[in-house]
Amino acid sequence: MTLQKIKTDICVIGGGSGGLSVASGAVQMGAKVVLIEAGEMGGDCLNYGCVPSKALLSAGKQAHLMRKGGAGIAGVAPQVDYAVAMDHVQSAINTIAPHDSQERFESLGCTVIRAFARFTSPTTVQAGDTEITARRFVIATGSRAFIPPIDGLESVPYLTNETLWQQRSAPKHLLVLGGGPIGMEMAQAHRRLGCDVTVLDAMDALGRDDPEAAQVVKEALRAEDVAILEQAPVVTVSGGAGDITLTLKDGSEVKGSDLLVAVGRVANTDKLDLEKGEINRNRAGVKVNASLRSSNRRVYAIGDAAGGMQFTHVAGYHAGVLIRSMLFGLPAKAQSDHIPRATYTDPELAQIGMTEAEAHKAHGAKLTVSRADISGNDRAIATGRSSGGGFIKVMVVKNRPVGVTIVGPDAGELISFWALAVASRLKMGQIAGVVAPYPTLMELNKRAAGSYFTPKLFDNPRVQTVVKLVQRFLP
After folding, report:
1. What's the rounded Cα separation, in Å, for the pair 224 and 219?
2. pLDDT at site 102
3. Contact, 80 vs 61, CB < 8 A?
4. Residue 143 counted as an annotated binding residue
5. 50 found inside a domain
6. Is 388 assigned to a binding site?
7. Above 70 in pLDDT, residue 440?
8. CATH classification of the domain holding 250
9. Range of the domain at 316
10. Is the peptide bond before 149 cis (omega within 30 degrees of 0)?
11. Which of 30, 167, 322, 395 has the smallest number of Cβ neighbours within 10 A?
12. Residue 181 assigned ligand-binding role
């Protein structure tokens, strides 16, 4: 086979969120760019992750609201059509897809190659019948579902976040292996669409999150009859299509019709021939420094491939770091303490920076925890969303937030305010001084910031003495 040879400034491997951001930014600023993608343009987030999961959650929420009813409105049994709900998922993907399409990126000036890429030397990559030599390479290959080595799993039909969206018949009883964000979101969506659902986790469901906040979410799902089995490691899987049995370590069995495996993600780096590119990797992905550069100075890795926080918005953030570094030669390092995350269950759970336990461990007596409960928010009360035990708590050290946990309605939206505050190193006084329109959920953020000052102002004898003196002598 005769190879076509291309020389370029930047070669991006992977057409997901991070890779597309690097490619579009670089080519529009004058760099020559080759973009390589073997699968679907848009990557995991568009086709198998963020977009389809939120679309299905939306369909499930509509069914839930119909059952629940509201003030003066009787609940009714919804007529759920699972196939139509999945059509809605595909419609959402199709609507967004043109923005990530090969045609758009070629119109921007990128050379797009649809083939698997592998390194053939520290300076070259082969994709199909093309050899690309580049000044800089960016590995943005994302991740895929991790399939755990459970006895019998390989012989039983199971779903992952990639294959789930091909379903058109609702599972009678969905078994969800893994109680992380993906597992819990899909558990609630399917329960609301009329399926029986059991979640099994070898440790604790939502175990990476603040335990108090995670408990609020778990109680909400259990109230909707989602069975959540924790500390329940699965040791064997048996059965066939429509009749699957999970045997737990204690010998008990859980039966269901369908199995969704959602126990984590693994970086897509194993087929890149990294050793030929003199690129080191570890168990998490490509080994990079704070500038996202690998052991080969020509090669960078971003997003899930870099082995850090596995979120679409992190890949986009990494792309911005590389744009500053590769195109302008400016020093740029990736950080993580200002990166928010959210689980889109109902209620939502969002976090930025340290959890309360992490902050206590890191700062000890220097830490102050300020909080506000959603039950006291007027907008939540007026819209019937104040129950359920939701809250916001802010971990404060030296008058600055170092972590924020929010659980409740629209937590994923509310956390963005704190992302700005943490990234800008705002002080609590500045945050408390924000004027929010009334009534909004945004007032929760202001109230949490204000409550930081409550003991300093209202329960402080010195302040009371000063106020009395001022009132006595003020003309």
Report:
1. 9
2. 97
3. no
4. yes
5. no
6. no
7. yes
8. 3.50.50.60
9. 4-41+101-145+266-328
10. no
11. 30
12. yes
